[in-house]
Specification:
By secondary structure, the chain is α+β, with helices and mostly antiparallel strands. The protein has 2 domains: 138 residues, Jelly Rolls; 123 residues, Beta Barrel (Cyclophilin). It has 4 helices and 22 strands. Strands 14-21-18-19-16-15-22 form a 7-stranded mixed β-barrel. A hairpin with a 7-residue loop joins strand 15 and strand 16. The longest helix is centred in the last third of the chain and has 18 residues.
Amino acid sequence: MIEILEKGFFTLPVTSKRHTFASLGVPAGGPMDSFRYVLANYLVGNPPDTPALEATLILPGIRFTDRRAFSVVGGVKSILLLHRGKKQLLPAGETLFAEPGDELLVAPLEYGMRAYLAISGGLRMETFRPKPVLKGDRLALQPGRLPDPRSLGEISLPMPEREAVLRVMDGVQYDHFSEDGIRAFYNSEYLYTPQSDRMGIRLSGEAVSFANGHDGNILSEGILMGDIQITSSGQPILLMADCQTVGGYAKIAHVIAADLPVAAQLRPGSKIRFRRVDVFEAQALLHRKIREIGESIQVDGLYTPF
């Protein structure tokens, strides 16, 4: 097991295996940044959907109780490991090894919003509705072999700073919006507000107006991570990993899968614009990114748990 010495800001066990519970009204959950989650598991020899820790803004402090491989992907270039009473500066994005009693020291993320900590074998998820970790928690691990050392090398994953252009496809209720409203949506800059969380990123900017006979309210229907709802006040909400399974606001657009990891790494105060693509370009962009990553780490058919 691992022991939580410092919880960080918001550290959550995540797994991609909850999609099958949507019919029961349980949000899909899982990692906000699927690319980095998969790569963290790759570095420690785990299957790509193995439970890991998602750290927001601050890496947690943890103590290892047995010999394990671990990795940190996203947010930092290096980590500090306390080994036999001495601090070791180790690179992120590589396979690292810890001995019993070693401690990963708490540290703020240098860039981006989230980092992923994977451990060989993976966390033993006792529930599909995990809670954020707390100081003093002990998290059980599954048995796992120690892999040969691996590195992410020159993999190119865009990490936004204070602004981003997110590519989107037309939403299901695209025709519920006026021409002026659609023009405002694509020509305006929106601010990522502090009232955001893993359920959704609330944006503030020029209001998106509705077509005659529409006010933004619809009969509740299924929604997915990446959908952009427009509230009755005309402000967008980008739905993320913990979004509800149904919603009653009209959806003007949907952020493509290739850009969701970018959205997941933005911080409050960031500026967002949207650019329209069609479904064929969206699929091509995702396949290209998967192929680029797979070739970089010499893995065929890299799997991403969207």
